[in-house]
Specification:
11 helices, single chain, 2-enoyl-CoA Hydratase, Chain A, domain 1, alpha/beta
Length: 260
């Protein structure tokens, strides 16, 4: 598949998706949104891909919305259409069944922060920064930020970041729980790929079901979650990977998972 605004490389069970628009700091222009949508569909349907890494080129991971589109102006209807278009794209990534890791190479601002937050795990370069920059443009948070941010850091801290547009360095983002790890810039992709390859070699069905259950857990009553656990765990018991893990444990050897 050919793309205009992103790069996609697949190797060893990992798809690396790179937003490749450094001149616009990887902002969510229409070509970027179109390519991310197409890549999401392609990766979701590719059984050889077990894990996805999302990153950017240049100084930014993603600088947010398309400022040129803002300058053109909006009517009520065109504004809704524009945001709905972004939502269609991010929904496809947020609902992806496979684990998605963000390798945050630079600024993740506004909608770019939303892209980072919808990923299952993020690893930040030590010189990367994040900002809930919407308020600086006279806007409310979009791209799912108001959903993900309070769930990750609590409502009061989320309100502070949203109301002020404060820029956080990578270390501060780590302290708040916005990222799982901060690494030197020249080690970002190496460390990210180490994790991605580890997950790609794991029991992929159990990983997908874990992601599904965790995604539902914060909005589900406890008893409903336990019923979901029973159903999904029973399914996992019947997989080849679960049986292989049990055999490997008894034989005192590492398991060899095949994704089935």
């Amino acid at each position: 598949m050919e793309y205009k605004a992103i790069l996609v490389e697949k190797r060893e069970g990992v798809a690396v998706v790179t937003i490749n628009q450094p001149k616009t700091m990887n902002a969510l222009t229409q070509p970027v949104l179109d390519d991310l949508m197409a890549a999401s569909a392609d990766i979701s349907g590719d059984d050889e891909v077990k894990v996805v890494v999302l990153t950017g080129t240049g100084r930014a991971f993603c600088a947010g919305g398309d400022i040129n589109r803002f300058m053109e102006g909006f009517t009520q209807n065109s504004g809704i259409d524009y945001i709905d278009g972004i939502h269609t794209c991010i929904r496809s990534w947020a609902n992806m069944k496979k684990p998605v890791i963000a390798a945050v190479n630079g600024a993740a601002a506004g909608a770019g922060l939303g892209i980072m937050l919808l990923c299952d795990i993020s690893i930040m370069s030590e010189d990367a920064k994040v900002s809930c920059a919407f308020i600086n443009m006279g806007l409310i948070p979009d791209c799912g930020v108001a959903y993900f941010l309070p769930r990750m850091i609590g409502m009061q801290r989320a309100k502070e970041l949203i109301f002020t547009g404060k820029v956080l360095k990578a270390g501060d983002a780590y302290q708040l729980g916005l990222t799982s790890k901060v690494v030197p810039a020249d080690e970002l992709m190496e460390k990210t790929m180490e994790l991605a390859k580890q997950l790609a070699k794991g029991p992929s069905y159990a990983l997908r079901m874990s992601k599904r259950m965790l995604g539902m857990s914060l909005d589900m009553p406890f008893d409903d979650l336990l019923r979901l656990e029973s159903m999904l765990q029973a399914d996992c018991f019947m997989t080849e990977d679960s049986k292989e893990a049990a055999s490997a444990f008894m034989e005192k050897r590492p398991p060899k998972f095949n994704g089935r």
